[in-house]
Design brief:
38% of the residues lie in helices and 23% in strands. The chain is an alpha/beta fold and 108 residues long.
């Protein structure tokens, strides 16, 4: 999957401070690494075909069903592509933030 300026980072409707920080960190590092500026919004915004879903919001859970949230706990995360969406699933505590850092470290 190639991330372009057409993508948007989508957080839960009421993101925790850690999830908001995860979205901001992802946007910042993608700008530094690839020169791509992505908006950070919430799932309250209309859906787009190309999104990076971060955290544990309703849209993420609908898009990437089958995630064992109890098993992830506070710190675990799942990285997955679903069509033209990138999913970074993780808890409100630290999981989403760890997922963003894992993605950046392992793939960028």
């Amino acid at each position: 999957m190639r991330i372009t300026a057409g993508f948007r980072i989508v957080l839960p409707a009421a993101p925790s401070p850690s999830q908001r920080h995860a979205g901001e960190e992802l946007a910042r590092f993608l700008r530094e690494i690839a020169g791509v500026s992505l908006a950070v919004g919430t799932e309250s915004d209309p859906p787009r075909a190309c999104e990076i879903l971060v955290g544990d919001g309703t849209r993420l859970r609908r898009t990437a069903s089958g995630i064992d949230w109890r098993r992830l706990g506070d710190e675990g995360f799942v990285l997955r592509t679903v069509g033209t969406r990138l999913v970074i699933a993780g808890s409100r505590v630290r999981g989403a933030l760890y997922g963003v850092y894992g993605l950046l470290e392992d793939y960028f």
